[in-house]
Specification:
Blueprint: H1 17-36, H2 40-43, H3 48-57, H4 59-80
Helix pairs in contact: 1-3, 1-4, 3-4
Length: 81
């Protein structure tokens, strides 16, 4: 039996929120992340665990993080060309 990928064109499929946040922090840093998405969890004593708690309870903030993650992926693909 083969596993069929249900969402072959969805770049967020299989990516956890923690992976997204870790990659965004590695790419932009906490300060850059706080400038792009104005959330206190990114600007005031930031940590991955406290940010994850907030993002998991706040759907609109999670959508902003997912949008920035997709933007970062597009920019990385363009730079690789």
């Amino acid at each position: 039996m083969t596993v069929v990928d249900d969402q072959p064109r969805n770049p967020l499929h299989g990516v956890t929120l923690e992976q997204m946040l870790t990659e965004l922090v590695a790419h932009f840093g906490w300060a850059g992340l706080g400038e792009r998405i104005a959330l206190r969890c990114f600007t005031s004593d930031p940590s991955v665990s406290s940010s994850l708690k907030f993002l998991r309870r706040t759907p609109w903030a999670r959508e902003k993080v997912e949008g920035l993650y997709l933007f970062m992926l597009r920019e990385q693909r363009r730079a690789a060309r």
